[in-house]
């Protein structure tokens, strides 16, 4: 059964963290709009996320009909005719409007506990707007600021790769000033994954019943997402028939393989990360036989296999009451404080080739 259907049936859906989004440029605005337009099923808070979208009239985002009234749009009017690769003109356009943009962001997102800056590096406007904003922002300006970044394809032009690398270098050198960074690959379907998975993890701890023995709280999620460096987020769906705690290899191998391959991005050195968390949501009938001491030990072994020296390890067990068709086990694995993924090294190599 889909996760949205589970939330719809939950008695008291809620959120662990109030999040906001800043979409920069055409692609970044499209991503932020999708994420912020999430329907929560809360009776008095249908659209809990807030967003500010900033783009130029030269490159308008392709936005659906937005339902969320908490999404504000800023269309920068340009008197210049520029190309998609004209970095200087894009930079001037943003800087001419920088002060009112920042005021709007602070006012619109003042109630957000964690703000995500969404950027699509497949266009110059995303990297230029992002660099202009980041260069003038410090830790605490918007409480906690993290990044969601769509990486450009390796076949992108030299100019696109160049400005993407400049932006990535800037935020990496200043990573201590910000929360975590979540990368996702340059294909269209990936743009819905980060926000969807984050929203699910944000919902589970406060919406579904916690099972004894779990060690995953709201503060753990906040600490993990706020950890400087890169984030890795994976969801694994398993049928209850696959769960046999006396013969764990098949489903444990599936979890490990999913983490290594990644849904959003891959190519991380997990040993160099800071924190690892596993959050599991299972139907009550499955949870009764699944959430055992042996199962907990098996999950701890997975964590040690990926990162034997992580600072914080959290495992959360949650359950839901199911009808006949509700039988999926949802497993979320989160890691923080990671180094850069392999894909970025490949971007740099490709850029040097086309020099």
What topology does this entry show?
Elements lengths: L2 H7 L9 E6 H12 L13 E7 L14 E6 L10 H10 L1 H11 L5 E7 L3 H12 L9 E6 L7 H16 L6 E5 L8 H15 L1 E2 L7 H8 L3 E10 L10 H13 L13 E9 H7 L2 H14 L5 E9 L8 E10 L3 H12 L2
Helix pairs in contact: 2-5, 3-5, 5-6, 6-12
Tell me what you see in this structure:
- By secondary structure, the chain is an alpha/beta fold.
- The protein has 12 helices and 11 strands.
- The chain has helices spanning 3-9, 25-36, 87-96, 98-108, 124-135, 158-173, 193-207, 218-225, 249-261, 284-290, 293-306, 342-353; strands at residues 19-24, 50-56, 71-76, 114-120, 145-150, 180-184, 209-210, 229-238, 275-283, 312-320, 329-338.
- It has an 11-stranded mixed sheet with strand order 3-2-1-4-5-6-8-11-9-10-7, sandwiched between helices.
- The termini are far apart.
Quick overview:
The chain has 355 residues and is α/β, with parallel strands linked by helices. It has helices at residues 3-9, 25-36, 87-96, 98-108, 124-135, 158-173, 193-207, 218-225, 249-261, 284-290, 293-306, 342-353; strands spanning 19-24, 50-56, 71-76, 114-120, 145-150, 180-184, 209-210, 229-238, 275-283, 312-320, 329-338.
């Amino acid at each position: 059964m889909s996760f949205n259907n589970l939330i719809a049936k939950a008695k008291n859906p809620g959120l662990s963290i109030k999040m906001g989004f800043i979409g920069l440029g055409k692609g970044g605005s499209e991503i932020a709009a999708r994420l912020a337009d999430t329907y929560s099923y809360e009776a008095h808070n249908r659209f809990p996320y807030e967003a500010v979208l900033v783009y130029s009239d030269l490159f308008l985002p392709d936005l659906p009909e937005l339902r969320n009234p908490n999404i504000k749009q800023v269309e920068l009017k340009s008197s210049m005719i520029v190309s998609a690769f004209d970095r200087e003109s894009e930079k001037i356009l943003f800087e001419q409007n920088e002060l009112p943009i920042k005021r709007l962001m602070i006012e619109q997102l003042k109630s957000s506990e964690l703000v995500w800056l969404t950027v699509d590096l497949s266009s110059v406007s995303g990297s230029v707007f992002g660099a202009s904003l980041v260069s003038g922002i410090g830790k605490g300006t918007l409480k906690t600021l993290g990044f969601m970044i769509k990486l450009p394809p390796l076949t992108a032009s030299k100019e696109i790769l160049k400005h993407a690398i400049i932006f990535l270098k800037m935020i990496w050198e200043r990573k201590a000033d910000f929360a975590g960074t979540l990368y996702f690959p340059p294909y269209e379907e990936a743009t819905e994954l980060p926000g969807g998975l984050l929203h699910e993890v944000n919902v589970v701890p406060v919406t579904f019943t916690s099972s004894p023995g779990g060690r995953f709280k709201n503060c753990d999620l906040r600490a993990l997402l706020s950890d400087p460096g890169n984030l890795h987020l994976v969801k694994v769906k398993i049928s209850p028939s696959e769960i046999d705690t006396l013969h764990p290899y098949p489903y444990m191998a599936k979890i490990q393989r999913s983490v290594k391959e990644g849904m959003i991005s891959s190519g991380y050195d997990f040993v160099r990360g800071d924190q690892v968390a596993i959050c599991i949501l299972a139907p009550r009938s499955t949870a009764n036989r699944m959430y055992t001491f042996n199962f907990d030990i098996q999950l701890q072994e997975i964590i040690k296999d990926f990162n034997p020296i992580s600072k914080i390890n959290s495992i959360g067990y949650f359950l839901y009451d199911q009808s006949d068709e509700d039988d999926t086990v949802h497993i979320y694995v989160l890691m923080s404080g990671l180094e850069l993924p392999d894909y970025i090294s490949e971007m740099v190599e490709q850029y040097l080739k086309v020099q």
